[in-house]
Write a structure and sequence with these properties.
Layout: E1 7-11, E2 17-21, E3 27-31, H1 35-40, H2 43-46, E4 48-54, H3 58-66, E5 71-74, H4 78-97, H5 111-138, E6 143-147, H6 154-161, E7 166-170, H7 184-195, E8 199-202, H8 205-219, E9 226-229, H9 236-243, H10 246-254, E10 260-267, H11 274-287, E11 295-302, H12 309-328, E12 333-337, H13 341-350, E13 353-356, H14 366-373, E14 379-383, H15 389-392, E15 397-399, H16 404-416, H17 419-435, H18 438-453
Parallel strand pairs: 1-4, 1-6, 4-5, 6-7, 7-8, 8-9, 10-11, 10-13, 11-12, 13-14, 14-15
Antiparallel strand pairs: 2-3
Length: about 450
């Protein structure tokens, strides 16, 4: 962290805590889920932070009515929130930014999207903007720090009401150049909303360049907005403690590993490219019979956004491809679909190859988490379209995420790599992650905010 204490208003869809009731009716506070919340949690320990987030449970909505100084829960109309989250943010914006739509057939933009935009996305963003303005009335000198694709419209709404406010926005997912899938008015609203900030940040120079190019196309320029990039990372100390925790050690004891273990840890999200990865593993066994019976793919998958049709369809495709590979090579694939992070960390410790092949990813922290705790000098096979490739590609086996033949050969090369080369690559990645941890990412963000304040 930096030495100067900052006064911050953090704004994100998810907050640092969420509330429920236990079996006895007592209020229970739980730590908020998601990598963003984890990454920003340390700010609250070193700076004066008010966090504005959505009330997502019934008890959250009760808390929203009570008022809290450090965490402001914004209660939304349930129908508006559903349109905002499940129609516009996910899947429309998420799919555009991860280049998941197939323009020949999808999406088909109709009245439903236009209504969801106006009655959901705009409505929820305006509620967030009103909450921000209320906090600025209490503390006009605070810097407002928006996060991610849920809140592209809110900065401009705040700017219109408080022209002198200091505003920054960090986008945690990829930024494409081509936004023509989105109707013109919505496309302009996204870019103009972000350009109302003083600073807009991304994880990599690639995504920052793409943003500048799309702003040129949509708005003519970036105006006076400063565009920066800082790669997010992990809390190294926390992961090293977790590595030796009782729950992880118990999960590791239960792990039945073959001679060679290929591991992937993902959400069941189409952007993670799980189906092509399964197909590539099948091709590996088809084309290299020497690995049959010696290597297994363990896929630790967290269920994701199961209320959205595209995600349910993708989950079915994952199951179908795993069955297809299993029919040709019995016992070669093990799917574990559950929210069970200790089991994922246990798999990280034991892999010989970590397979990370997203179609596109803003960063992908799996590529950093796994090598940090791995105990077998495992090899990282990494998509060139993961943001993490900018940092780790030098020591990974790089793959094109669309080329299943290349991925199969990359798995073969990783499994065949000699011990000395494995050790060299694994050690270099661990050093890179340790030296560039989440605290360094936060320092970069705060340096941006200092420039805004100056």
């Amino acid at each position: 962290m930096t030495g100067r204490r900052h006064r911050l208003i953090i704004v994100s869809n998810r907050g640092p805590v969420t509330y429920d009731r236990d079996a006895n009716g007592a209020r229970v506070e739980r730590r908020g889920a998601g990598g963003l919340v984890t990454a920003l949690r340390g700010l609250r320990e070193h700076h004066d932070v008010t966090w504005i987030a959505s009330a997502t449970t019934d008890e959250d909505r009760v808390v929203a009515g009570e008022g809290r100084h450090d965490v402001v829960m914004v209660a939304h109309d349930p129908q508006a929130y559903d349109l905002y989250y499940n129609v516009v943010a996910n899947p429309m914006l998420w799919f555009i930014q991860h280049s998941l739509w197939g323009p020949a057939t999808t999406p088909v933009v109709g009245r439903e999207l236009h209504e969801a935009w106006h009655q959901g996305y705009e409505t929820v963003n305006r509620r967030f903007a009103e909450a921000v303005v209320a906090e600025l009335d209490n503390d006009p000198d605070a810097t407002v720090f928006f996060h991610d694709y849920h809140l592209y419209l809110a900065p401009r709404m705040v700017r219109e009401l408080r022209p002198d406010a200091r505003l920054a926005h960090f986008v945690h997912i990829p930024w494409p150049v081509d936004w023509t899938v989105l109707p013109v008015a919505m496309r302009r609203a996204v870019h103009e909303g972000l350009l109302a900030n003083d600073v807009v940040g991304f994880h990599t120079a690639r995504w920052a360049r793409n943003f500048e190019r799309s702003c040129d196309d949509v708005c003519g320029s970036c105006g006076r907005t400063e565009v920066t990039n800082h790669p997010i990372s992990i809390d190294v100390d926390e992961f090293e403690r977790l590595r030796d925790s009782e729950r992880v050690l118990a999960a590791e004891d239960a792990l039945q590993r073959p001679e060679k273990l290929v591991v992937r840890v993902d959400r069941t999200d189409p952007s993670k490219n799980i189906v092509r990865g399964l197909r590539a593993f099948g091709i590996l066994l088809d084309e290299h019979p020497e690995w049959r019976g010696r290597v297994k793919l363990l896929a630790r998958l967290d269920p994701s956004r199961e209320k959205i049709a595209e995600y349910l369809t993708y989950r079915e495709a994952i199951d179908a491809e795993a069955r297809a590979v299993g029919e040709r090579h019995p016992g070669a694939v093990e799917l574990q679909v559950a929210d069970a992070f200790p089991q994922s960390v246990a798999a990280y410790k034991q892999y010989d190859v970590l397979f990370v092949n997203p179609v596109y990813d803003g960063m992908n922290l799996v590529a950093k988490e796994g090598p940090l705790v791995n105990e077998r000098d495992g090899v990282l096979v990494l998509s060139e379209n993961a943001g993490a490739h900018d940092e780790l590609g030098e020591w990974a086996v790089t793959v094109n995420p669309f080329d299943v033949w290349e991925q199969a050969e990359a798995l073969h090369a990783a499994l065949s790599m000699d011990a000395g080369e494995r050790r060299r690559r694994a050690g270099a990645i661990r050093s890179q992650v340790r030296e560039n941890d989440v605290a360094k990412w936060v320092r970069g963000l705060l340096s941006d905010l200092d420039r805004v304040s100056a």
